[in-house]
Structure formats: structure tokens, C-alpha cells
Amino acid sequence: MNFHDVKFVLSVHSERQLPTEELPEIAFAGRSNVGKSSLMNALIGRKSLVKVSGRPGKTQGLNFFLVDDSYHLVDLPGYGFAKVSKDMQNSWQGLITSYLETRQQLKCVVVILDIRHEAKPTDTQLLNWLGQQGIPCVPVYTKVDKLSGNERGKNARLLDAGHGIRQEDRILFSAKTGQGREELIAALTKYL
Ligand code: GDP
């Protein structure tokens, strides 16, 4: 993974708009405001190719980014924002669920969790559901720069226990300091 050339390709709002290319895809999922855009920007080494959201909960599509003409990174809309109506939550589920269930090109999903927060049921549901579908998943605990070393370890263990995640399977990340970037690249490279 070099990220020499990264382009925004398109925003998908219905299944028929999905790209027909057979390139492998890696998707990124997380609650609104978890730091998903910041993580993706830090990963690809661009300041703001992926929009950092000032307006959580707005209607969004699945945003496709083409990397070095060889694979797609797919930014899934954030979920679980309290002020979003039930209808919007359902429409998130409809398109995303069918994308995750049926997309042959999808190689793995990076599930992003805020290291400061306790295990939330919607995150557990997503992680369990991905497991049931047999979709490989890379859990990332982000914003680790916001906690001291002690708290970081303690919170990481709470999230591990809450979600049934093994310590060796998750990555501690900070979009601010770049911690975890190389580890994430190594984990994703295995799926490409
Ligand atoms: P998204 O809605 O999941 O895409 O979240 P954003 O990437 O827009 O981030 C939400 C807020 O958290 C923004 O104010 C970011 O600057 C901040 N943020 C995201 N990641 C980090 C991080 O690793 N460290 C710190 N300190 N702040 C972060």
C-alpha cells in the first residue's frame, strides 16, 4: 500500500450505482463522529480527501476512493447518531446491509471505535453480524492520543471484553499522531 494516487470516484446511493470493476474493496464503518474520515485521511496521507464531518447524521452515500488504480477504499455512512430519524437508520441499514452481504469485491471491513467510549450495542451488533456473515473485520480503537497510557490500556481492555475482541486482533490508532498507521496498513495488505 503506497497511496501514490488516490482519487474520489463516486458516491453511491443505490445498489445499481455500485462500480462494476472487480477491484478489491476495503470498507470503513463506525458511528458518526467516531473519527472515520480522520482515520482514512491519516491512512492515505492526505489532509482532507475524505471529508471530516461537521454535520453528523446528514444523508450520505457509500463513498468510493480508487487507490493506485488497484483497489477501492469505501467510506460507509456513519451510523448511530441519536438525532437521526428511524427512517434514516433503516435506509442506512438497507443499502449497507445488502452491500456488505452481497459484494464479491469486499475483502474486509475496518470497524472504528472511539477508545474513550464504552462498548455500545450498535457496534457489538455490527461486529457480531460481520462475524456471522463471514466478513473479515479489523477493529480499530481510535483517538488514543486523547487518553493517558494507563487509561488507554484500561479502556482498550474494556472494549475488548465488551465486544469479544482479542487484543492481538485490534489496532490502537490516532489520526493526530499517526500511531497505528503502519500496523493498519500491514493488516489491510493481507486482504488485498
Ligand atoms: P467521522 O464523523 O467519523 O468521519 O469523524 P471525523 O473524522 O469527522 O472526526 C470527528 C472529530 O474527532 C473531529 O473533530 C476530528 O478532528 C476528531 N478526531 C478524529 N480522530 C481523532 C484522533 O485520532 N485524535 C484526536 N485528538 N481527534 C480526532
From TrEMBL:
Coiled coil: none annotated. GO terms for cellular component: cytosol. SUPFAM superfamilies: P-loop containing nucleoside triphosphate hydrolases. GO terms for biological process: division septum assembly. Residues 22-192 form the EngB-type G domain. One of its GO terms (molecular function) is GTP binding. Its cofactor is Mg(2+). Keywords: Cell cycle, Cell division, GTP-binding, Magnesium, Metal-binding, Nucleotide-binding, Septation. Necessary for normal cell division and for the maintenance of normal septation. NCBIfam families: GTPase_YsxC. Belongs to the TRAFAC class TrmE-Era-EngA-EngB-Septin-like GTPase superfamily. EngB GTPase family. This is Probable GTP-binding protein EngB. It comes from Desulfopila aestuarii DSM 18488. The gene is engB.
